[in-house]
Amino acid sequence: MSSKYLDLLAEKYDSEEKVATEIINLEAILNLPKGTEHFVSDLHGEYQAFQHVLRNGSGNVKVKIKDLFKDEMGEEELNEFATLVYYPEEKLSLIKSHFSSKKELKEWYIETIERLLKLVSYASSKYTRSKLRKALPKQFVYIIEELLYKTDEFTNKKDYYAKMLEQIISLGQVDKLIVGLAYTMQRLTVDHLHVVGDIYDRGPDPHKIMDTLIDYHSVDIQWGNHDVLWIGAYSGSKVCLANIIRICARYNNLDIIEDVYGINLRPLLNLAEKYYEDNPAFHPKRISDEQLTEQEQLQITKIHQAISIIQFKLESPIIKRRSCFAMEDRLLLEKVDYEKNEATIHGKTYALENTCFATIDPEHPARLLEEEQQVIDKLLFSIQHSEKLSRHMKFLMKKGRLYLQYNGNLLIHGCIPLEENGDMKEMKIEGEGYAGRELLDVFEEYTRYAFAHPEETDDFATDMVWYQWTGENSSLFGKREMTTFERYFIADKATHKERKNPYYHLREDEDICRKMLAEFDLNPEYGRIINGHTPVKERDGEDPIKANGKMIVIDGGFSKAYQSTTGIAGYTLLYNSYGMQLVAHQRFNSKEEVLQNGTDVLSIKRLVDEELERKKVRETNIGEELLQEIANLNSLRKHRYMN
Question: How far apart are CA 412 and CA 195, in angstroms?
Answer without folding.
Answer: 10
